[in-house]
Design goal:
With 94 residues, the protein is an all-alpha fold. It contains 4 helices and no strands. The protein has helices at 2-9, 11-22, 24-52, 54-77. Helix 2 runs antiparallel to helix 3 (24-52) and helix 3 runs antiparallel to helix 4 (54-77). It is globular, with a radius of gyration of 17 Å.
Length: 94
């Protein structure tokens, strides 16, 4: 159980580190989205498990992890520093 838990626990801290390198606002946003989906996902997994079966919930969770790993790869290699993910501040907005 420990090796699997370690592997499944790594995408979020790695993704958060990459997001913080891009922008502190993006890192804060990622932390908030993670908290939201942690709460919603727990309830949703139980409800979906009763409706479609826990095997399907496991497959959906696996698809979410694959999507997260793809996003992690995109963040680490997809855009240069200061690209579209960066928050820009214009003098007029201040």
């Amino acid at each position: 159980v420990a090796p699997l838990g370690f592997v499944l626990g790594m995408p979020f801290p790695l993704g958060l580190r990459l997001a913080m390198r891009r922008s502190s606002a993006l890192g804060s946003w990622a932390w908030g989205v993670n908290g939201f989906f942690t709460v919603i996902g727990t309830v949703l997994a139980l409800m979906l498990g009763m409706m479609i079966g826990f095997r399907m919930v496991l497959l959906l969770a696996s698809a979410c992890y694959v999507g997260g790993l793809l996003a992690l790869a995109w963040l680490s290699h997809g855009r240069p520093e200061g690209g579209m993910l960066a928050v820009s501040h214009s003098p007029a907005a201040d």
